[in-house]
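User: I'll paste a sequence; please echo it back and then give the predicted structure.

Assistant: Echoing your sequence first, then the prediction.
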Amino acid sequence: MCVGRIGAAHGARGEVKLWSFTADPMAIKDYGALATEDGKRTFTIETLRPGKDFLVARLAGVADRTAAEKLGNLDLYIARDRLPPAEADEFYHADLIGLTAIGTDGRELGTVIAIHNFGASDLIEIRPTQGGATVMLPFTEAIVPVVDIAGGRIVVDPPEGTFTDSTATGNE
C-alpha cells in the first residue's frame, strides 16, 4: 500500500518534503520502515514535522541535500497487513481495486481499476464489461450506495446513459 511520496529536498541538511497518504498524516512515522515499490530500498523516518502544505522528514542515512535530491518523487509503501483495520464506511483504495461494479438493476457494469482524488473528492474508475473507455464516477454514497468488499462487489447507481453501448468509444 502506498502511504507516502518523497518530494524535493528541503534545506541543506538532508531533509525532504514528504506527502503522507494516511488518514492522520503524522502517523506515517508510526509504520516503521517504508519501502520503494520494488522493495529494493527502505527508509526509516527519524524526525517528522509539519511544513506549509507538506511534511518535512529526516530519513535515516540521508545526510545532506545531495542525497535528499536523489529521492525526489519516490513513492513509499508498506505491506497491507501493517495497516489498522478500516473503520465503518471507510475503505482502503487498494481493497476497492478489482471489485465488480454491479448496477442497481443487477447488471454487471465492469471492474474497479482505480480510485483518484484530484483535489475535490474521490473518483472511482471502472473498466466497463462491454469494453470501451473507462468511466470515472464520484465515489459518493448516492452513486456507490453499497460497498461489499467481502462479496467482491460494489453497487453503482450511475447517471443514465453512462454504461450504454453508445458511450463506449474504444479508448482506454
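The chain has two domains: 2-82, 93-167. Residues 166-172 have pLDDT under 50 and may be disordered.
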